[in-house]
Amino acid sequence: MAIKHPTPMLDELEKGPWPSFVTDIKRAAEAGKEACADLLGQLELSYNDKEGHWKHGGIVGVLGYGGGVIGRYSDVPNLFPGVEHFHTVRVNQPASKFYKTERLREIMDIWNRRGSSMLNMHGSTGDIILLGAFTEQLEPIFAELTQKGWDLGGSGSALRTPECCLGKARCEWACIDTQDICYNLTQEYQDEMHRPAWPYKFKFKISGCPNDCVASIARSDCSIIGTWRDDIRIDQAAVAAYAGGEIPARGGAMGQGVKLDVQKDVVELCPTGCMSYEGGKLAINNRECTRCMHCINLMPKALRPGTDTGATILVGAKAPILEGAQLSSVIIPFIKMEEPYDEFKEFVANTWDWWDENGKNRERIGETIQRLGLQSYLDALGFDPVPQMVKEPRSNPYFFYTEDEVPGGFDRDIEVFRKKHAR
């Protein structure tokens, strides 16, 4: 099929050294995909008109599921009938996104026959994003996917598809089994994924260590980050080898032969100042360590995480929608994340109950906590504040305690104050 719509503005995006999505769509159009040919035409029109020509699809999906399909229609179907319907189907990815080639071919066979053939590997939540299907094809697509063992991911005001890093499959720093946690949560919360019932979306992201390679602290409503609570393991002989230039910094990632200055590059850059280097020996005050991984990343052969491993649980991250971007806050500094994860699931249930009762429409849990105060959330869960929750020193002097928070009550407190300041 020839390109049937002139696209002078899109053609500009094919110039230069970088790969272009326009070239990919043109290739699919030339292979006979009408949806791709008309998509080019509608996109060109959008660039000319400086407005999108899509309208939201409202309620569209598959029988029994409230999510997994994002409805979209063209508002100029008379001009571009190939994209009159252009629904997106989200397919739940396996933990850590490990695929066999034949499984990917299964999806592409279905999508080439019943959809536009365009897809996104992956969306920011995870999920294989299948772009562009007509309404009448949704049920057949879903049926064929499920026959092959695939399922739809989350969308709408529901639990989004849990996502995790490579974990113990390929990373020596993993303190928790991220893949098992991801799979367990996906299986446990099927109703929450497929039947939206909350104020807004909710995301789990699981990182095996504080390097946080899936950026859970910036993107997830509940971050599960592997950590340890005992001492960092030190190999002093390897420290000496780094100092002598026998082992390059960062395992040679910055270039072979890069000599590490242990005092300048490691000790003086520790964010809490908990390290010292004297007489060729490295010492760490582990009580002051915040597990930032800086020293371990620089000297991976000399330093390793401790052996008493678990996870730090944080809540409340989000991208900028209503209240702007925010990072998640520490709620549980350390928890042993071991199957069947009952303690964590109890925490999740209590968190959802509080959010469901207090959250406004399209308000992420981090925004609810910001609006009502972290103390309100902690009180509801029965948690005491801990130092890890403090983001900055208190700047508002108008903070009042309740009587049960003052030892001996207000009357005793007032009497102590009077005696102290009596003339």
Automatic annotation (TrEMBL):
Limits of the Nitrite/sulphite reductase 4Fe-4S domain: 155-380
UniProt entry tagged with the keyword Iron-sulfur: yes
GO biological process, one term: sulfate assimilation
Superkingdom, natural source: Bacteria
Keywords: 4Fe-4S, Iron, Iron-sulfur, Metal-binding, Oxidoreductase
Listed GO MF terms: 4 iron, 4 sulfur cluster binding; dissimilatory sulfite reductase (NADH) activity; heme binding; metal ion binding; sulfite reductase (ferredoxin) activity; sulfite reductase activity
The enzyme's E.C. designation: 1.8.99.1, 1.8.99.3
Pfam families membership: NIR_SIR
The keyword Iron is annotated on this UniProt entry: yes
Name of this protein: Dissimilatory sulfite reductase alpha subunit
Source organism of the structure: Desulfarculus baarsii (strain ATCC 33931 / DSM 2075 / LMG 7858 / VKM B-1802 / 2st14)
Parts forming coiled coils: none
Any GO CC annotation of this UniProt entry: sulfite reductase complex (NADPH)
